[in-house]
Target: Pyridoxine/pyridoxamine 5'-phosphate oxidase
Amino acid sequence: MRKHYTHEGLVEEQLAPEPIGQFTRWFHEADDAGVVEPNAMVLSTADAEGRPSSRTVLLKGYDARGFVFFTNYGSRKGSELAANPHAALLFPWIALARQVIVQGPVEKVGRDETAAYFRTRPHGSQLGAWASEQSSPVSGREVLEQRYAELERRYPEGEGVPVPPFWGGYRVVPESVEFWQGRENRLHDRLRYLADPAAPAGWRVERLCP
Ligand SMILES: Cc1cc2nc3c(=O)[nH]c(=O)nc-3n(C[C@H](O)[C@H](O)[C@H](O)COP(=O)(O)O)c2cc1C
Model:
């Protein structure tokens, strides 16, 4: 399973002045290279005692304010974020020998932003959000299917589905963003942006040993 990385390097001179610009370049390159769901990212949270947990979620938007995903606020990740509003995101673009790691505090997005996104979801996914008490034990699949069928009767296709009050978006506000590029002989490139109000674009960059 040992793989030799012969990819082009990542050099300071070619980096975008701020991490969102750099992320945009790499995100498009991952998409162009055929990475399956390049917006899939591993979200890590920790409970009040610092015990970590991870799961995959989909990136649904990003800009200078941060990285947005949508979920159930009552889920395990939701309870952990309520107790400890900090997270890490990891984009595993293995086919390109790349990963991006974002760390920072997390805030809920506004209800308007959640509602606007919810309306773009297919009808079935809207009902699914209502049907699932995410992360709670359920006695069997049939319970979920029955709930879904009841919701379908109540909100047939074409009927507006209200946004569940327990469902919405989170924004991870980046404080640090690391770009990792696999290179030959394990001399990988790791360039990390750190938020720094005193730096020119609001960010300074440091190189880390691989
Ligand atoms: C490719 C992929 C994408 C996923 N996207 C989401 C998502 O955007 N939001 C979400 O709540 N769960 C998503 N999930 C499910 C989560 O990984 C997880 O099972 C769920 O959110 C419950 O996590 P928790 O119990 O740790 O809170 C996705 C799973 C996979 C494999």
About this structure: The domain at 12-120+168-207 is CATH 2.30.110.10 (Pnp Oxidase; Chain A). The longest strand covers residues 98-108. The chain has a mean pLDDT of 96.
